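The records we work with from here on pair a chain with its fold. Each token is a code from a learned vocabulary of local backbone shapes. A record is reproduced here so that you can trace the correspondence yourselves:

_____
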Amino acid sequence: MAVTEPAPAVRPHPRGGKEHQGGEGREGYEGILRRQSLRESAARTYARSLPIVPVRARGLTIEGADGRRYLDCLSGAGTLALGHNHPVVLEAIKKVIDSGAPLHVLDLATPVKDAFTTELFATLPGPLADDARIQFCGPAGTDAVEAALKLARTATGRSGLLAFTGAYHGMTAGALDASGGAPDVRVTRLPYPQDYRCPFGVGGDRGAELGARWTENLLDDPKSGAGTPAAMILEPVQGEGGVIPAPDAWLRRMRRITEERGIPLIADEVQTGVGRTGAFWAVEHSGVVPDVMVLSKAIGGSLPLAVVVYRSSLDAWQPGAHAGTFRGNQLAMAAGAATLAYVRENALADRAATLGARMLARLQGLATAHPCIGDVRGRGLMIGVELVDPDADDPAATVPPPAPELAAAVQRACLDRGLIVELGGRSNAVVRLLPPLTLTDEQAVAVLDRFADALAAAERAGHHRNDTGPSH
């Protein structure tokens, strides 16, 4: 993010003393932030735009060391499907700890692992669950992406990859290659359909159709330079790319294109999974069954866990071809199984669809009174509000340019009002809302009230000019 951090006013105490020991209250809170600024790397991100020190949390609410309470619509970047410290999650973790079961078991079979796998398979699209294999990876989604790419390359004997502009698949080398930020000769970029900033300038069904034709032509043209790749990887809703849902018809078209050409389709459901978009898995909106699903975040019930689920025909690995020391996280599996079961049994995906549609409608109404809101979009409780500069003078532009400076001001104003939101999108001008699926009607109203007030305050402060500086 294009966010700077003030230099610490004083150096921390070397050892001992009230400030070093932390504690709550403003002195302890400011001391912790100063020490973080001195000790942690320049790569830290959330800490820059969200200068808070969480000490307690429950559901939607976080309490900071300064005594302030915040409504958390970041939810650990979508990890906390049930919010903070949900009772069923805490009980599942406590049960494993109290049982005396080993917590570190590599990839050995355990009752906890068996229960997690059984629950996960019960939620998968039927045709995949009936013929699936699972690989437990390292603890993060990017580890699962790396495993999925290695799997596809092993199974097909090919090395190329089809990925999409605006994609985000993680921070390790292979995952970054597949993301939209770094070029790689093995990765062919394809246009991801979007209405507001359509790469073909038309949007809607026509824009999606042109993107699909581009893909087909690229694959079928012997002189395109693309060849037949090992896989296509896509997000059913681009999250970091700006909360852009893939049109259902386009997603079905990608499934048909890959199937007809023997190209495995990898669905990255790291952020969209476990009910977030109004279906248990986002691919279910379109009826698509991918060959591989990459899963993390919410499947661990707030703890680190990542897996790849794939068709058995792709299981061409030799023993030890992909491993990871911490792929047997028993506490995460217990918390994950409890979360998956709770979401399924309480129809929280349906709840996300209903409440998300209501929130989108109110935000779209807000846009009519605020020209700086260029677009409101999303699916379920994965919502994005793109902020623009409506006064920019560019007659050639079909839509106003993004306004990252305004978005950053809105994020700060939200924090001042006790609301935590994230920014994303190509220019970091999309305010993202990822509340837990347990969000109540009253909490949804409070979130939107605070956002509306923050937007109005940022506008009054004059943060409306386009910022062309670097984004994160």
In short: The first strand starts at residue 54 and ends at 58. The chain has two domains: 51-72+348-460, 88-345. Residues 222 and 466 are 43 Å apart (CA to CA). The domain at 88-345 is CATH 3.40.640.10 (Aspartate Aminotransferase; domain 2).
